[in-house]
Write a structure and sequence with these properties.
The protein is built from 5 helices and 6 strands, in the order ααβββααβββα. The chain has helices at about 1-15, 30-45, 80-90, 95-105, 150-175; strands at about 50-55, 55-65, 70-75, 110-115, 130-135, 140.
Length: about 180
């Protein structure tokens, strides 16, 4: 065990001295939540969904689902909550998505692009496009934190924050899709 630990440590030191950086931990809580939402949308034959946050009736979330390709998710406060609540009641989900994307309360919008509809991934495989998270700042989860002028720690903190928010939003949207 000690020999194995030393050889792993030695390999890490050599890689580090050659300029290689380890791949960040790709664990994501949103993987199963994204799968559950996409399955619910497919079962209901929906390409969009929207919901009000029961903890804050001025906060809404909506998603546009491009089957097998992308989940585009927006959450934000809206200045006229009764208008969006009425659209949700009449299942005008795409309209809610458009309204939140274009006319949300300034400073409250969070936009997530989940490539492949598989939850957020901190570093995609070679052929996959990166997921992204946009608030007041945009982060592309491509594993290249230096290019984004971030430390690895800040990059992973942004990823964790995005993933936690995404899980919450996906849960709201899944519950609405299953109604």
């Amino acid at each position: 065990m000690i020999i194995r630990t030393r050889s792993c440590l030695a390999a890490a030191l050599v890689a580090s001295s050659l300029g290689f950086t380890p791949v960040p931990d790709q664990s994501s809580r949103s993987v199963s939540a994204a799968k559950e939402l996409t399955q619910a949308l497919e079962a209901a034959k929906l390409d969009s969904i929207a919901a009000v946050d029961p903890a804050d009736p001025t906060m809404f979330s909506a998603a546009l689902y491009i089957s097998g390709s992308q989940l585009l998710v927006v959450s934000a406060k809206y200045a006229a909550p009764p208008l969006l609540a009425a659209k949700i009641k009449t299942k005008e989900y795409r309209d809610v998505y458009v309204d939140l994307s274009s006319a949300s309360v300034a400073g409250t919008k969070v936009f997530i692009i989940d490539q492949n509809c598989d939850g957020l991934v901190s570093k995609p495989s070679d052929n996959d496009p990166p997921d992204s998270w946009e608030t007041s700042k945009s982060v592309s989860f491509d594993g290249e934190w230096r290019k984004a002028k971030m430390t690895e720690s800040d990059y992973m903190k942004a990823f964790t924050t995005a993933d936690e928010h995404y899980v919450k939003v996906l849960a709201l949207l899944t519950a609405q899709a299953k109604r």
